[in-house]
Amino acid sequence: MKRTISILLLLFLLLNSLHPLTAYAEGDGNIDNGGGGMGGGSSENYWNARDEAVRITVIRASDRKPVTTPVDFTNKKPSSTILHFGKVCKLQYNSGTSLSVKLNGYTYINPAQSIPRIISSNSGQASIDEIKKYFCSEYTLMRIADVTGFNYDDLINGDYKILLEPVAYMTFGGIKYAMTATEAALYDQKLDGGLRSKMVSLSHKNLPLAMFLETSDLGYPAWNGSTTTAASDSDIISSLGLGIVRFNGAETEPPEVTTVDYEYRVNTEVITSVTVSGGQADPDHPVTVRFTIGGQTYTVSGVYYPEGDSQLVWVRWRTPSTPQTMTIGVSVTGGGSVSKGTITAKIVTLASKDPPNPVADDRNDSYTRPAVPSKAQKTSASWGMWRPWWFEYWVWHSDWNWYRDDEDSGHWEDDGQWVDDGWWKFDWNAYNASLTASMTIVPDAKNPTASGKTMKSGYGINQTTTAQVSTNQSSAVTDAQTAVTYFPEFQYKSFWRLLERTQAGYSSKFEFTSNQYSTYKRRTHFTPIWLPDGSYTPYTWLIDCWTPEGMLSMKLTDSVNIQGNLWMDWHIAPVKP
Length: 577
Description:
The protein has eight helices and 33 strands. The chain is mostly beta strands. A hairpin with a 4-residue loop joins strand 3 and strand 4 (65-66).
C-alpha cells in the first residue's frame, strides 16, 4: 500500500524539522496513575495546573544503571533561575546520591509534540492511556534518543529501559521550584514535614500518584496502596513517582521454581508439583520444566503465564515398591536461563498391623471408650492453567521516501506496510477436584443373633468404604488409593487394618482383607468380648487421592450398637444320665 502527498520542495524544507506523532507503539509502558482534586493554596504556596514536566533517563537493564543524563520534557518555558536539585533520577537517589539545591542552570526540552497532561488536578484528570501512548510512541523515543545522544537502535534493542518521573513546577515559600516526586519527599524529610504541611495535595498526592508501576521492575514494586490519598515520604521514595518504558527482550526475568517436599506411600500413583514464576512465559518465550525421578526424566513443555503471575506445573508418576528417600531434581528452562530446584520425597510403607487373635476369655477391666481422633482433612482442591492467545493490533509502519518530480518540486510516497504489533493475552482455565466418601459398618452375616446394627460383642463386623472422585481434569487427579481403619479397643492407635481396594477408579470401594482367624476366612473384624454395651465406632482414614494442589483425604466413621456378648448365645445343658 502507498500513500502519496505532493508538496513543494520549499515547503518540505520549511517543515522538515516538524515530526508527527506516529500511532504505533515501540515500547511497552509499565505505568499507572491516580490522584484527584487539589486543596486550596496561598500566595506563597501554590501550583498551577499543567505546570509540569517528565524527567527521562535511559537505564541499562542488566545492572539498572543510568547511561544518560536525565532530561525534562515540558510544554512550559520555566526560568533558568528556578530552584531545582540538578538532573538526578530516582535510581541515583535510591543508590545514595544526596539532595542538593541548585540556584540556577535549570534546563528543559520543549518537544514539538506536546506532552499530555501528567498531573491530575481540579481542572482535569490525566489519562494514563494518553501518557502511555505518548511515551511509547516512535516519535517520542526517537526524540529521546536525539536529545540524550543515545543511539535509537540501541535504545529499543531490549538492553535498555526508560525511566519516567513526573516533575512539578511549584511555588513554595514564595520561591519557584522544579522537583520530582522523589525530590519532594526527600526535601520534605529535610524540612521535617514542612513541604507536606503546605503542599500536601500536590507534593504527597497528585505528584507521586501521577505515575507508579503496574508490575515490579528495576527493583521497584508495583504499587498496591491508595491511589486517592496522600502518601508518606517513605512510600514515595520507595514506590511512587515513576513509570518505565521497556522493550521486547529487555532484561528477561529468568523463571524461578518453588518446591515443596512430599511424603508418599509405596507403589502409589502420585502427583508432584512445583510453582514456576518470573517474567512472562508465552509462545514466543516458552518455559519448559523437567522432573528427574529415579533416573527417569519427565518433561512438561509449553508452560505459560503472564508477567507478575505464576503457573503450577506437575508430573504424574508411580512410587517405587520399597521404602526410601528420593531426591527429585527440577530444572526450569526459559528466557535463555535455567533455574533448578530439588524436592525430597519420602516413600513410606503403610503396612497393616492386624489385631491379635481374639479369645473368649480376654478381659480389659480398665477400658474407657476413647474419643474419635480429630484429624484435618482436605476434600477439595482447585488449580488452573494459563492459556495464551494473540491479540491482533495492526499498525501502519510508515516508510516515507522523497521522489523528485522536477527541479522545483517533488512528492513524498509512503512505502510502508501494515504490521501486526499485537501482544499475548491470557485466559485462565480453572480446574478442580473433590472427594466424597462413605463408610458402612454392619454385623457379619455369620452373626446368628444380630438385628440390624445391633449385635453382641465377640462377633465380627464387616466394613465397606466407597469413594467418589469428581474432577474436570482427569489427567491431573488420581483416584483414592488407600484406606486404613482404626478401632476404639486399641485407642485408635495400637493396631489397624489396611483395607483392600476391591474396586478401583474414581468410584472405588474398600473392604477388610480376609481375616486369618476367621473359620470361613471372612472379611471381618472381631470385636473383643469384653466391650461394654453402647456404641462401637471404628474410623477410617481415606487418603492418596492426589492433585496438583496436594492430597485429598477424608475421615470416616460408622457405628454398631453393642448389647450383651456372645456368651449370652451359649446354652450349657446338663448331660443326660
